[in-house]
What does this fold into?
Amino acid sequence: MTIESNPELEKINSIIDHEIRPFLQRDGGDLKVVDFKDNLLTIDYQGACGGCPHAKMGTLMMIQEVLKERYSPEIKVSVA
It folds into this structure.
């Protein structure tokens, strides 16, 4: 099954698109989903988020908390 045809990932992407991405883009950043396997979502920061070490830690925690609340308490998020 490819990333594009994974129904779980489609739900995660919807949450990211509506609740997380606008927050990142407001400050010139974004993210790309790299992989999703065994409840581990791997992302790659883009734009301003890619070069800001403080933003990475803060936004990583925010992304994980939003996804735990809206998708699954077991999800974990890591940066590629």
